[in-house]
UniProtKB/TrEMBL annotation:
Catalyzes the conversion of heme O to heme A by two successive hydroxylations of the methyl group at C8. The first hydroxylation forms heme I, the second hydroxylation results in an unstable dihydroxymethyl group, which spontaneously dehydrates, resulting in the formyl group of heme A. Heme binds at H267, H328. It comes from Devosia elaeis. This is Heme A synthase. It catalyses: Fe(II)-heme o + 2 A + H2O = Fe(II)-heme a + 2 AH2. The chain crosses the membrane at residues 21-42, 104-122, 134-152, 164-185, 206-225, 265-283, 295-316, 322-344. Keywords: Cell membrane, Heme biosynthesis, Iron, Membrane, Metal-binding, Oxidoreductase, Transmembrane, Transmembrane helix. Pathway: Porphyrin-containing compound metabolism; heme A biosynthesis; heme A from heme O: step 1/1. InterPro entries: COX15/CtaA_fam, HemeA_Synthase_type2.
Amino acid sequence: MQDAAPGQVSFASDRLRPVRIWLYGLAAFVLLIVVVGGITRLTESGLSITSWKPISGIIPPLNEAEWLEEFEAYKQIPQYTYVHSWMELDDFKYIFFWEWFHRLLARALGLVFLVPFAVFLFQKRLSRDLAWPLFGLFVLGGFQGALGWWMVTSGLTELTSVSQYRLAAHLTAASLLFIALIYVARSLTPGRTIGHVTGFHLATGWILLVGIILQIGAGAFVAGLDAGMGYQTWPLMDGAIIPKGLFIMDPAWRNLFENALTVQFIHRGIAYALVAYIFWLLWRRSKDGGFGGVHGWLPRISLVVLAQVALGIATLLTSVPIALAVGHQAVAFMLAGLAGAYIADMRRVR
C-alpha cells in the first residue's frame, strides 16, 4: 500500500527499519503479557502474590520455607478464606506461577524497551522529535505497571477478587500502549501510502478505533464480574432479546458496571454496533472508490471483526474455557492494532 517503487528505499538508507522492528517486537511482547494476564485472571491467580517487590520479586521462592512464607501471606486475604481454603501448597504453587510469570514479563518489557532505545540514541537513529514520543511510550508502560499493582491491592483486604473498575483501567491502558506502538511503527514506514483520504475517512477510522477500545474496556468488566459465566445462550439472554433486570440496582448507573446481566448485555450490544458500523463502512467505501490502496485495510478488519464475534459467541456457549477466552481477548487487541495501522496509513497519504 505504498507508492514507493520496489528497491527505492534500500535497507542501508532506511535507518529507521531497526526501530520499526523493535516497536513491532514491543507490541508483540505487550500482546504476550496480555495473554498471560488473561490466563492469570481465568485461573484466579492474580492475588497469589500479596506484596510488590520490584527487584527481589523477580526471584520466586527457592525452598520450602520461602514457599510456606508466601502461602501464609496468601492465607491472610479474603480470597483464600472464602474461595480457596481447600488449597494445599502444591495448588498454591500453580496459581503463584502465573502471577509471578505475568509480573516477570511486565518487568522484562522495561528492559526490552530501554536497552534498544539507548542503542538507537547512541547510533543517532532517533531525532529529538521521535525520541521524546518514544520515551512517552516508556512512561505509559510504567504507568501500566503501577495500574497493575493498584488493581491487585483492591483484592487484598475486602474483595475476593480484584475490582472490575481497576481491571478495566489496567486492560484499557494496555490496549492504548499496544495501539500506540503499532501506530508509531506504521507511521515510520518509508514512502507514502496511496489512495484518496478525506477528513471523513479519518474521522470514521477514529470512531472505529474508539469503539474497539470501549469494547475492550467493556470486556474487562465482563471478566471482572465473571459475567460470562451466566446467561450462556445466544442470541437470547435469559430467554429474551432484551432481558428483564437490567436496571434493578439503585442508583441506576451502578447497573452499567456492577450488574453482571447488564454488563454482559452492554458487551453484546457494543459488538453488534461494531459489526453494523464496519459493514456500513464497507458499503460506503464500495460506493466511494473501492478498496484500493490504503482502504484495503477495511476488508481485512471486517474479517477479523467477524472472527472475533464468532470467537466471543463460542467462548460464551462453552462456559468460558481458558483457550477460547484468552484467544478472544488477544484478537480484540489485534483488531485494535489493525485499526491503528489503518489510521496511521491514512495519515501518511496526506
